[in-house]
Amino acid sequence: MDSWGALSVEFAASAVSARDDGSTKRPKTTIEKLPDKVLLNIFSYLSHREICRMARVCKKWRMIAYDTRLWRDVSLRPEISGLHVGSLESLLGLISIRFGPSLRYIELPIELITHTVLHELANKCPNLTHMLLDFSTAMQLHDFSEMQAFPTKLRYMCICLSEVIFMEGFMRKIYNFINGLEILHLIGTYEKVEEEEEEIYEVINVHKLKSATPNLRVINLFGINFVDDSHIEAFSSNCIQLECLAVNFCAKVNGSSLKSLLQRSRRLRCLLMNQTNLISEHVMQVEWEKTSLQELDITATDLSTECLIDMLTRIPNLRFLSAGQLNGFNDSVLKAFMELGNPKNLIALDVDSSDNLTDDALHKFLSRYGHQLWGIALSGMPHITDQLWQSVLPVFNNAKILVMGTQERLGVNIHVDQLMDGIANNCPNLQRLELRWDPENLRFSDKSQKAIDILRVKCLKLRCLVLSDGRYYETTKANFERADRTTVVRTTTNCRVSNYYLLSNYRDLIFN
Fold this sequence. Notes:
Elements: H1 3-21, H2 36-43, H3 48-54, H4 59-65, E1 73-75, H5 78-81, H6 88-99, E2 105-109, H7 115-124, E3 130-134, E4 156-160, H8 168-174, E5 183-187, H9 206-212, E6 218-222, H10 229-238, E7 244-246, H11 258-264, E8 270-272, H12 280-284, E9 295-297, H13 305-312, E10 320-322, H14 331-340, E11 348-350, H15 359-369, E12 375-379, H16 386-392, E13 401-405, E14 414-415, H17 416-426, E15 432-435, E16 442-443, H18 448-458, E17 464-467, H19 471-482, E18 489-491, H20 506-509
Parallel strand pairs: 1-2, 2-3, 3-4, 4-5, 5-6, 6-7, 7-8, 8-9, 9-10, 10-11, 11-12, 12-13, 13-15, 14-16, 15-17, 17-18
């Protein structure tokens, strides 16, 4: 018997003897009796906003709430964390008293990014390695002419750019302090861009920045409207350690720099180019067979069928492929990939909304390689229904991520009880599941609770189940909540499942 079992037996025996004796009273246990280290551990599960509320309870809780070990990762952006620092003086006090040497990660909004704050962080927080500076709402910058110090141990830096504020005055002051950076995020204003054409400003000088950061392993340029192939060329000329490059939603990238990028960056394993304007001729000039590329995202890039066949048959060791929303991705591409390429190492496939793929071609591919896949996304295609999924589920015994269904109203019904039962019995390692079908197309019976029970009991690693809002969502949510798994079931309006969780640099690519 294990120690916990022994303790349980001993406690039960003592409780019985005490009840029989009648003379022994059970000690009254309250939260005040807990040791400080236990309370500290309990507090570590709370958000900083909740910890601040706990500090008002009593002197003991206030002392624990001020423990620097609870303040290693701090976001001071109110829209993200709910924490709002009213003045610079308050922040300077927090840095000295509460953060100190324990601080590893901090997020600062524009109003708190001053040379005084940065000086204090450099002097009082010697172990600070991760920093996010949010300039996205800036209309003007503070004066950094007197700035002489900046954190020197930064390994990760994320800068949220403004649409109109030029950053060079600030960047010039920090170039000498950031040569140890390994991970760089530059986040643009893609989501704020309006329909009408406006003048585009290059608000940060990428060509100078690359000279100051020779040790970068991961570069994420997300949604920056001025980034083009010249900026990719600049980074590739100086960053020989580069392993991962993401230029998602950088519309000016057309692929003219890809050949030189992959020639220079021999360590490059991950290339993410979702929603870029790649030109097939540029892509076909790359010597794919000589690259070390393993993870590729070409979603919504409008590459031709010829280009896709050329690329997928020449990449020697592809493990992750995201190729959704591509009209050129058809049966001939999938057939060529199987016969002339090397899909034997593939662990993730996303062909969302690639309507020119037939269910027959997908069935052949998945029947052959489904056993090795960890992530499969066949969403956004009206002709892919539960029948295809039911036929291939028996080979998905290693699947961790499944994304299926379309939000378009279908002429056929999806029998979700049988589907859930098939998933539960064939995918024991499942962690994330999304069903995007319209609630009106889902058919389930009075016995659907049993199918949900089987899924919940057999897929114990399941941490995210996303459904369209409707009656079936409410039923599933209630089922998981009764089992005290309250955070598993979510709606498609606030959550989406992606194969990106399987990227080798996924944790490094998280921002915001």
